[in-house]
Amino acid sequence: MSASSSRPSTLHLPPGDWPTVLDCLCAHFPAISRATWLDRIARGRVLDAQMQPIDAAQTYRVGMRIHYFREVPNEIPMPFEERILHVDEHLVVADKPHFLSVMPAGEYVNETLLARLSKRLGNGDLVPIHRIDRLTAGLVLFSANRESRGAYQALFREREISKRYEAICPALPHLEFPLRRRLCMVPGDPFFLMREGAGEPNSETLIEVLERRGDLWRYGLSPISGKKHQLRLHMATLGAGICNDPFYPELLERSEREADDYVRPLKLLARGLRFSDPLSGALREFESTLQLDWYRRAHLRGIGESQIQDSPAPGAAMPEGPSIVILREEVAAFAGRTIERAEGSAKIDMSRLAGQVVRSFHSWGKHFLIQLDDVSVRIHLLLFGSYRINERKDAVARLSLSFANGELNFYACSVQLIEGPLDATYDWSMDLMSDAWSPRATLRRLRERPRLLACDALLDQTLFAGSGNIIKNEVLYRIRVHPLSLIGELPAAKLRELVREARTYSFEFLQWKRAGVLKAHWLAHGNTTCVRCRIPLVRVKELGRSQRRAFFCERCQKRYGDSAQIAADEPSAVDEG
Question: Taking the mean position of all CA atoms in its chain, how far away is CA 182?
Fold first, then answer.
């Protein structure tokens, strides 16, 4: 049972003919049983106007002020952290993550921004001066002092505060921006929705385009008025509903909209607040530190995933070792052929490649290697790289190799020439996919770096060449190790298991990738719920020195050691070219 210990809710008893306060509460809150109210009263969780516990026989009186502490059975912990940006005598400013309520409501009591901040700051007088929806992320302003609260609340009431939002929505190439959107907004059906109505506009938003990426644009939204769901309805009625919005333009089924999908948050961010301080007259400006990521799996009604997959964004998946093995297999037929023409935007001497015979193809970690007569070509696809075999994209290739009967084209990648034999450049015992892979050598290298975090170790290409973020998240989940564990604190058996599972999972990755079913076998990466504990997985956008996305369970993945001991100068070779 989750009980709100910070502050009670208040009810002024409505008119009626109930004999007792208990009877009134049961009628006013039909979803809460009489036995539950009796239990709360017995535990002193229902109080009168003087904050004294009442008893079950307390006589009813219309208008009587009753305080009660809300309780929620089995409240689900929210796996996202708020960030405090500013604290002074009068104000607290915080960045609220997606899915966290500002105030207690429905099934959330302690897992709210208000409850968390009150506990962290030890201030029971905190009151939000404004609110943003639970699904929206970004800035929330709190009053920390009841004496000055009215002055700051007046800023919103009298529209003397400038608010800026950002949203990712479908493109609107047929409209001219900036655009001023004015609507008459009226209550909709069901009751929690708003809709466009007839009559004079009562809401206004200034809309501008901040960034364009194919079928998706990032918009800047400046609301002049402050209607419920204003930004969401304004964009939806333009034909560009905010990505992942369960309400607009089409209301999802109740089961869908109430099942939070942490991988697909509403792409709406309260970016900035600007106002003149009513006490000092000074200009105050606050900026959110959060970012809306351009996530490939954004749910867009009417736009298929295949249409947006060529617009990758920060957080996109870098090809991992098994994918490079597949590339090596796909081009195998070009071995022994002569390169007739080499061109592209890569800063290498293309003339050295023309006329050379492709002796063999290799892979090392995330490097794709083309061995020629007297030089080798190294290609790293990085985050956004791609390739085409016997076809071209509508883009300039970094490297294009033409043969008598076919061509290879590589885009958005790193291309370098390697002089001398490849064995002089690469230690094949580091490559997870190589026959020369050495678990013994890997264990030795790991033991030499005891203060390395487990999440960083599995991304370090001098330890596990070819391992990437998917392999990292899946391996740590499967062996039940917290990503912030210190390598030096892992028991010997657990360290051996980490090395063994990295190799095993890499080949499972290869098998599933070939069959086109890789995602179906993910247990942690990209998922929302722990399959073992049936609780939400923690999703962190940037974790460890590698600053990569992580998915893990705080309950079943054990944390070994104190990650605060990590050395500031610990060397790293994470996903480097």
Answer: 32
Residue with tokens 């809300």: 70
Nearest Cα to Cα of residue 7 among 142, 103, 121: 103
Asked if the peptide bond before residue 190 counts as cis, ω within 30 degrees of 0, the response is yes
Residue holding tokens 């090809």?
319
pLDDT tens by residue, 449-466: 999 999 999 999 999 999
Phi and psi based region of residue 387 (left: phi greater than 0; alpha: psi -120 to 50; beta: remaining) = beta
- Cβ atoms of 525 and 537 within 8 Å: the answer is no
Residue 60 to residue 14: CA distance in whole angstroms: 10
Q: What is the pLDDT of residues 152-198, one digit of tens each?
A: 999 998 989 999 999 999 999 999 999 999 999 999 998 889 999 99
pLDDT for the residue numbered 79:
74
Tokens describing residue 364: 């090392």
pLDDT of residue 312: 33
Q: What is the pLDDT of residues 439-498, one digit of tens each?
A: 999 999 999 999 999 999 999 999 999 999 999 999 999 999 999 999 999 999 999 999
**φ, ψ (nearest 5 deg) of residue 35:** -65, -35
Nearest Cα residue to 321 out of 188, 467, 139: 467
Query: How far from the centroid of its chain's Cα atoms is residue 27's Cα?
Result: 42
Could you give the C-alpha distances from 571 to 174, 452, 457, 546, in angstroms and in order? 51, 9, 11, 11
Q: Sort residue 317 into left (φ over 0), alpha (ψ -120 to 50) or beta.
A: beta
The β-bridge partners of 92 are 87, 142
- Looking at the DSSP bridge assignments, the partners of residue 11 are 66
Helix-helix angle 439-447:492-515, to 10 degrees: 130
pTM of whole model > 0.90? no
Calculate helix-pair angle for 34-42, 21-28, nearest 10 degrees.
130
Cβ 490 vs Cβ 560: under 8 Å: yes
Q: 414-418 and 399-403: which strand pairing?
A: unpaired
